[in-house]
Write a structure and sequence with these properties.
- The chain folds into 3 domains: about 80 residues, Calcium-transporting ATPase, cytoplasmic transduction domain A, CATH 2.70.150; about 300 residues, Rossmann fold (3-Layer(aba) Sandwich), CATH 3.40.50.1000; about 120 residues, Calcium-transporting ATPase, cytoplasmic domain N, CATH 3.40.1110.10.
- Helix 8 packs across helix 9 and helix 17 runs antiparallel to helix 18.
- The chain is built from 18 helices and 22 strands.
- The strands form 4 sheets. A 7-stranded mixed sheet has the order 10-22-21-20-11-18-19, with helices on both faces.
- By secondary structure, it is of the alpha+beta class.
- The longest helix is centred in the last third of the chain and has 36 residues.
């Protein structure tokens, strides 16, 4: 899946080395048609990159200077020089392989029960074989017929089918999920996912693109450039999408930002720091009111913007309102279909957002979600999920940010969007490689299909032994027929599991495929 060698540029010369000798910050040259050996950022060049192996995305993705590329993907028509950011076991591809191996190597609770049954299976079968000889000898007086029947019992008894029933389905199911861009970390998560009846979505970066844009500015003191300068300067230490929106707006206006000192990110509220010797607060109206700062000068405009679905960010300099900034985040194109898919699977959908009620309700209406709760801090989201679980719901939480991590951990199944933060992905039990919320329903669909196969396999394996062993003991099956039946039982279990390879992720339809 990745090349064995890489072309590294060192001091103006090109040198081919084995991939394990490439180091972080090395400059790797990838020619058209070659597979990219490492994760990195494009230092020079542009091209279309085929990432279908990793993301399931069928079309090549345009990549330009400064953008990230993933090891294992295939370069298109352009020559790329890539600065390595992750090599060896730290690459995305290596981590994906590791996750799949972990998921496929674990034991489900039902498999542990099967293992216990299998341990006593052989002694029971031997006892039945001995009893068969005794009964044939005592009732019919035929030792030879009894011996043949006993041999048939030993031949037809098949613990193999029982042992194969669960792992073959799990390996095939998790493999099919991985090909679709759904990484299931372990068997326990797979076992919880198929039972989910409620899915809670975060808004920013999950149902929306997570790339909010500054669309309006109103200065209370000074001009809008000064407002944007203070607001963006304090956000230089922030990883929040709104912070990035400020920085992009400032860059577009060619504003040189002063440094920030004593930066603090207050999760669920905003950020603060010292800029040019002045304390600057950037955050929500409720946070400023808690700190005793008047928001009255900007409330009329803020109410109007919020009624139109914009997020309003307030900027305070030296305890005085500097102005307000209107932010909009575009909906992800698949979000409407994602919610429709979940409803087709009879799953309740809920939106938890830290935004204002107007902004959250607007997104909720657009995607036709069942319930919307706004103004929620990370601890509120955790309490909301715990409340749902206390009422008997099995809850999946979908998010991508640092502030989603507690809720992801609190849910029965945490589902992280792959474009999100490392903290969210570490906390979640399922990682969606593509930022496509439709994969949430697909994860539930493949989980249900996988467990359906497990129970079908177990039913067949138990039924086969329950019916076959008595028939063999009564002399209806010769050892040859018993051997053929035993082989067919294992083949049927494996074949049934392999049908999961036919499963395909859906775009809009919520119907499951076997």
């Amino acid at each position: 899946m990745r090349p064995e060698q890489a072309c590294v540029s060192k001091e103006g010369t090109e040198e081919w080395v084995t991939v394990d000798k490439v180091r972080k910050d090395d400059l790797v040259i990838v020619r058209p048609g070659e597979r990219i050996p490492i994760d990195g950022d494009i230092a020079e060049g542009d091209s279309d990159v085929d990432e279908s192996l990793l993301t399931g995305e069928s079309m090549p993705i345009p990549k330009y200077e400064g953008e990230r590329v993933i090891g294992g993907s295939i370069n298109g028509s352009g020559l790329l020089k890539i600065r390595a950011t992750a090599v060896g076991e730290d690459t995305t591809l290596a981590k994906i392989v590791h996750l799949i191996e972990n998921a496929q190597s674990g034991n489900a609770p039902v498999q542990r029960l099967v293992d216990q049954v299998t341990q006593v299976f052989v002694p029971i079968v031997i006892s039945i074989a001995i009893a068969t000889i005794v009964l044939w000898l005592s009732l019919a007086g035929e030792f030879g017929a009894g011996l043949i029947a006993a041999v048939s019992v030993l031949v037809i008894a098949c613990p193999c089918a029982l042992g194969l029933a669960t792992p073959t389905a799990i390996v095939t199911g998790t493999g099919a999920a991985a090909r679709a861009g759904i990484l299931i970390k372990d068997v326990a998560t797979l076992g919880q996912t198929y039972k989910l009846d409620t899915v809670v979505f975060d808004k920013t970066g999950t149902l929306t693109q997570g790339k909010p844009l500054v669309v309006s500015l109103e200065s209370i003191q000074g001009d809008t450039n000064s407002l944007l300068e203070f607001g963006a300067a304090v956000q230089q230490g922030s990883e929040h999408p709104i912070g990035r929106a400020f920085l992009e707006a400032a860059e577009a206006q060619c504003i040189n930002l002063p440094g920030v000192k004593d930066f603090k990110s207050i999760t669920g509220f905003g950020a603060e720091g010292w800029v040019s010797g002045k304390q600057v607060l950037v955050g929500s109206r409720s946070w400023l009111l808690q700190r005793g700062i008047s928001t009255k000068p900007g409330e009329v405009t803020a109410d109007l913007w919020e009624s139109n679905g914009r997020t309003v960010v307030w900027v305070v300099v030296s305890n005085s309102l500097q102005g307000i900034v209107g932010i909009e985040d575009q909906l992800r194109e698949p979000s409407i279909a994602a919610v429709a898919q979940l409803k087709a699977l009879n799953i309740q959908t809920i939106l938890y957002s830290g935004d204002s009620t107007a902004v959250a309700q607007r997104v909720g209406r657009l995607v036709n979600i069942d319930e919307v709760r706004a103004g929620m801090r990370p601890e509120d989201k955790v309490q909301g999920i715990e409340s749902l679980r206390s009422k008997g719901h099995l809850v999946g939480m979908v998010g991508d940010g640092v502030n989603d991590a507690p809720a992801l951990a609190a849910a029965d199944v945490g589902i992280a969007i792959g474009s999100g933060t490392d903290v969210a992905m570490e906390t979640a039990g399922i990682i969606l490689i593509r930022p496509d919320p439709q994969l949430v329903a697909d994860a539930i669909s493949i989980s249900r299909s996988t467990w359906r196969k497990v129970y079908q396999n177990l039913f067949w394996a138990f039924a086969y032994n329950v019916v076959g062993i008595p028939l063999a003991a009564m002399g209806y099956l010769s050892p040859i027929l018993a051997g053929a039946a035993m082989a067919m039982s294992s083949v049927s279990v494996v074949s049934n599991s392999l049908l999961l390879k036919r499963w395909r992720p859906k775009a809009i339809s919520g119907m499951e495929t076997e």
